[in-house]
Amino acid sequence: MSASQSSATPAIDGVTTGVIGHWINGARFAGSPDGTLPVFDPATGAVAAQVALASGADLETAAASSRAAFESWRHSSIATRTKVMFAYREILSERREQLAAVITAQHGKVLSDAVGEVGRGIEVVEFACGVGELLKGTHNEQVSTDVDVWTVLQPVGPCVGITPFNFPAMVPLWMLPVAIACGNSFILKPSERDPGASVLLAEWFSEAGLPDGVFNVLQGDATAVNGLIDHPDVKAVSFVGSTPIARHVATSATEQGKRVQALGGAKNHMIVLPDADLELAADAAVSAGYGSAGERCMAISVVVAVDPVGDELVDAIVERAKALVITDGRDSAADMGPLVTATHRDRVRSYVDLGVEEGATLVLDGRDIVVDGRPDGFWLGPCLFDHVTTEMRVWSEEIFGPVLAVVRVSTYDEAVALVEQSPFGNGVALFTRDGGAARRFQQQVEAGMVGINVPIPVPVSYHSFGGWGASLFGDTKAHGTEGVHFYTRAKTVTARWADPATRGPDLGFPRNT
Ligand code: NAD
User: pLDDT tens, 85-131?
Assistant: First the structure.
């Protein structure tokens, strides 16, 4: 380790050590697991804890608790919900460092990045604090003589959230504050790779005054996921993860007539036009390509260099990437930590081998990295491929690691056509000084989130997060007004309070007069 500051992982039994179990009905619940899986400390490679895999009986307990809690929570006042949300926001804000430390210990991302993740999650809680405004519905007086019509937004029922490893706090917080503020109960099935944060999220929500059973956590793997989707009490499913699983979850939930939003994988491109500020573009490519070791759904994985910027841009990226400090995320000097597991690191590294076989030029090779004092961590240094083409799998497939590909093209039109050749449509960025080009780009490009001189255009909580194409199945994005739409059902009431002008049956279609 360097002489820089290093923070220790808090030892919390059932969160960072021991067996990480469920949270059901306002308390930790050991249940009767169908086995456990190891949870690693990615910087040391050591097994730090085990996570319980929910059995069918555990799932039934969670579902029954969620169903019972829904029946009373749906009638809770907006004042009550608002108070709970404000209290939750305060607790999360005060303890953000503690939550971040747990994330770093199990995910590996550097501590400042984990603090940032928690911060973006808190912003969704802040959005949910305005639930009174969000659930206002609409009203028309006198749509016909003495007739009024109004639409109210009612909760959907017990909802489920299935989340990925790469944002163990932020992605659950995209979902659960909005679902719960709208009057639903919610079961979270976190990633089995870094489940510790989910237990704290639940404990602290209880402390904020949330009634028992409104928020439950069920630990497990694919078996738990499929059991939850198929459970008759579950009315809506939010999923975030890889594209094949997102497609499976969306298909399976839809077949059962359930609401579903399933956010999938990504391959985000960043186009650099000849007039761009190349220093800014290189900073952005390195930050967005290697931040969180490339394990972000909004990571930039392809830089599209429009002639003649290629050589200068690649040199600038290499210079910056070589200066990155790769070490334990708890070390304050760290720019980039390890990958989440050895299996994932090996998969990412195999893509680097593949790119070489496919004929791309590997200008930066992170495969042989050695980290002082951490020989068994799941390391892979920054890798950069130049002269990548669309025939290569390192271009077309999601790698989800610190591997950046540069594709060179001759024109703006070629660059946009290349972006649109990708089946994913999560985020895309354009670097330019030309306002006209930027305007044309944001209007025409096929992607759900667009950055202009912003490499990671993650929408703020009061806008909605989600991509297009193979990056989202379903038609509603996360949080913002689309989140409220997803977690509510509209009911429209038509009422007349007057003596009808005419009495007696009238079989004609109701007319507005
Ligand atoms: P993953 O798809 O492996 O796992 C996501 C969740 O699905 C986990 O809770 C896991 O337990 C469950 N799961 C895994 N296999 C399953 C199966 N066969 N059947 C049912 N459930 C299953 O994803 P991950 O590796 O944890 O996360 C990384 C992926 O998530 C990347 O593809 C990344 O792009 C994507 N992601 C997307 C977004 C977005 O907003 N679009 C955000 C974050 C991450």
Answer: 999 999 999 999 999 999 999 999 999 999 999 999 999 999 999 99
Which residue numbers are catalytic? 297
Distance 338 CA to ligand 1 centre (A): 19
Decide if 53 contacts 37 (C-beta within 8 A): yes
Instruction: For residue 327, report the phi and psi dihedrals to the nearest 5 degrees.
Output: -160, -175
Reply yes or no: is the peptide bond before residue 308 cis, omega within 30 of 0: yes
Residue nearest to ligand 1 atom 11, measured at CA = 221
- Whether pLDDT at 460 is above 90: yes
Atom of ligand 1 nearest to the CA of 471: 41
**Three state DSSP letters for 149-192:** EEEEEEECCCEEEECCCCCCCHHHHHHHHHHHHCCCCEEEECCC
Q: Record the tokens describing residue 75, joined without a space.
A: 């009638």
The answer to whether residues 381 and 359 touch, using CB atoms and an 8 Å cutoff, is no
- Structure-block tokens of residue 427: 């985020």
Question: In sequence order, what are the residues at sequence separation of 6 or more whose Cβ sits closer than 8 angstroms to the Cβ of residue 128?
Answer: 85, 134, 177, 178, 180, 181
pLDDT of residue 502: 65
